Amino acid sequence: GENVEQHPSTLSVQEGDSAVIKCTYSDSASNYFPWYKQELGKRPQLIIDIRSNVGEKKDQRIAVTLNKTAKHFSLHITETQPEDSAVYFCAASRGNSGYSTLTFGKGTMLLVSP
Amino acid sequence: GAGVSQSPSNKVTEKGKDVELRCDPISGHTALYWYRQSLGQGLEFLIYFQGNSAPDKSGLPSDRFSAERTGGSVSTLTIQRTQQEDSAVYLCASSQDQGASNEQFFGPGTRLTVL
């Protein structure tokens, strides 16, 4: 089955700095890669996703890049703000290839200091 | 509209007791997922429903765990003879269609504590 590794497990940055979280996956057939944000005591929420037919996707201060050859994808947050502090999870799946489920990484706790 | 809801929000039980956790998905969502989140850990997949059938139950950790879904809507996760290692937050999610390339909407979770 799919295996997703996520690094780092914790990341501390100063407000205004950039933050990068990296994930690798093992299943070359995976083609859908979402990122979820979970604030303390709250439920995970989708913040951005990318499919294998593109290499990069941006949404305001967040961007995700995908390297299918190397089987890794990354989340980039620019101009970080204290409200970005949360746990971020990457995930991978085969998308609509039959019945497929998301395999999540173990998460990265991002702390943004004012 | 209403999001995914779960009940109870908290459950404290004694070791050896059975518990039932309930999930109400977003209306019209055909896919439903159960996850387990232990302290400081990621989201561990348990089981996936498409309609009332469970094509993937590979994540259930033992035969003490079972789940069902009726009417293509409400799902119940049952843990029999609970053990202390079952203590965790149990999250339910639903999505609009089959497959996993559609956004999963999570419920608030049920925090289970086994004494």
Could you characterize the architecture of this molecule?
The complex is a heterodimer of chains A (114) and B (115). Chain A is mainly beta. Chain A has no helices and eleven strands. In chain A, strands 2, 4, 5, 9, 10 and 11 form a six-stranded mixed β-sheet that branches. The radius of gyration of chain A is 14 Å and the shape is globular. Chain B has 115 residues and is mainly β. In chain B, strands 2, 4, 5, 6, 9, 10 and 11 form a seven-stranded mixed β-sheet that branches. In chain B, strands 1-3-8-7 form a four-stranded antiparallel β-sheet, with no helix packed on it. In chain B, a hairpin with a 6-residue loop joins strand 4 and strand 5. Classes of the chains: A mainly beta (114), B mainly beta (115). Chains A and B meet through strand 5 and strand 10 of A and strand 5 of B.
Keywords for this entry:
heterodimer, A: 114 residues, mainly beta, six-stranded mixed β-sheet, five-stranded antiparallel β-sheet, B: 115 residues, seven-stranded mixed β-sheet, four-stranded antiparallel β-sheet, globular
Would you summarize the structure shown here?
Chain A has about 110 residues and is an all-beta fold. Chain A has no helices and eleven strands.
Please report the two chains with the greatest interface, counting residues with C-beta closer than 8 angstroms to the partner's C-beta. A-B, 29 and 23 residues
Low-confidence stretches of chain A: none
| Series of secondary-structure elements of chain A, N-terminal to C-terminal | EEEEEEEEEEE
* Number of H/I helices of chain B: 0
Q: Enumerate how many helices of chain A there are, as a single number.
A: 0
N to C succession of SSEs of chain B = EEEEEEEEEEE
Number of beta-strand segments of chain A: 11
Could you say which overall geometry of chain B the principal axes of the C-alpha atoms support? globular
